[in-house]
Amino acid sequence: LAKTTQPISMDSYEGQEVNITCSHNNIATNDYITWYQQFPSQGPRFIIQGYKTKVTNEVASLFIPADRKSSTLSLPRVSLSDTAVYYCLVVWGNKLVFGAGTILRVKS
Amino acid sequence: DTEVTQTPKHLVMGMTNKKSLKCEQHMGHRAMYWYKQKAKKPPELMFVYSYEKLSINESVPSRFSPECPNSSLLNLHLHALQPEDSALYLCASSQGGGGDRGFGETQYFGPGTRLLVL
User: What is the arithmetic mean of pLDDT over B69-74?
Assistant: First the structure.
């Protein structure tokens, strides 16, 4: 059964680095891992996508170990505006499965 | 234009009404998606269209009827809904229609339609 697991919530302070992990034990060989950010009453917004090792863009990094059973989204120096829900999305064949989401609260 | 638009933003309907949700994108994307999202829950996939053909139907009740008139438009026709169908309905699109990533490509989401069924 395709399933992802994420922490329910995390708290951080402005300027800190935040790491959110998603576990996906049964991910298939060819499937990518994608992370989305969602603010209240808005659609999810793409953050980053990766297949293995490390991917970095202007807003985040994604670390994927060799066994690919988990992935970690890293947000450097968060600000108050990063308060949102973060979802990992894994595709198993034609099954698109979002994780339950992690509520990140950034405090000043 | 990297935007997915959805209309209406809000919709209130009775259980005997027929209404439609509309989604539009002009990015040349060949896959379009409908999701349902309940409060404090992740989006749940309902339908996927690939090259204007229905590719995935996640066992959605027949009171929801999708339609893809052309590659830029996606509709969701609603009829005889139940109060438990009240939710945020999200549309998304992605560039390819599958390919070697299946449907794992980056999806661009619209702002959603907030539906209330009375």
Answer: 94
